[in-house]
């Protein structure tokens, strides 16, 4: 499985760049996946909190991230991303 994420759906003050939104370690941010048939129940559980739908799980095994201006800033297969993450650790 993969993910399609739209950064324009992230709630922020409008001063952050795509990279800042992606890699910021802001407090109280959580990313969760919720089955579509459970979405209403999920929103009820978090009533009164800031909740945004940022994207969806996809059948294709890749990560696709759309930036604030609508351009695609990441579009890579999961296997390529996994190798980029693990390769440096093998050398240690």
Task: Describe this structure as you would to a colleague.
There is one protein chain. The chain has 92 residues and is α+β, with helices and mostly antiparallel strands. The protein has one domain. 28% of the residues lie in helices and 22% in strands. It contains three helices and four strands; from the N terminus they run βααβββα. The protein has helices spanning 18-23, 39-45, 78-90; strands spanning 2-6, 55-58, 62-66, 72-77. It has a four-stranded mixed beta sheet with strand order 2-1-3-4. The protein is globular, with a radius of gyration of 15 Å. It starts with a strand and ends with a helix. The mean pLDDT is 93.
Task: Give the helix/strand layout.
Elements: E1 2-6, H1 18-23, H2 39-45, E2 55-58, E3 62-66, E4 72-77, H3 78-90
Parallel strand pairs: 1-3
Antiparallel strand pairs: 1-2, 3-4
Q: What would you report as the Rg, rounded to the nearest angstrom?
A: 15 Å
Tally of discrete structural domains? 1
DSSP strand tally:
4
Please tally the helical runs, counting DSSP H or I stretches of 4 or more residues: 3
| Strands in their spatial order, largest beta sheet | 2-1-3-4
General shape: globular
Average pLDDT for all residues:
93
């Amino acid at each position: 499985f993969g993910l399609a994420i739209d950064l324009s759906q992230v709630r922020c003050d409008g001063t952050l760049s795509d990279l800042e939104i992606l890699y910021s370690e802001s407090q109280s941010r959580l990313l969760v996946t919720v089955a579509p048939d459970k979405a209403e129940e999920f929103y009820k559980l978090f009533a009164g909190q800031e909740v945004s739908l940022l994207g969806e799980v996809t059948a294709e095994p890749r990560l696709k991230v759309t930036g604030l201006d609508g351009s695609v800033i990441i579009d890579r297969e999961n296997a390529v991303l996994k190798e980029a993450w693990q390769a440096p650790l093998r050398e240690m």
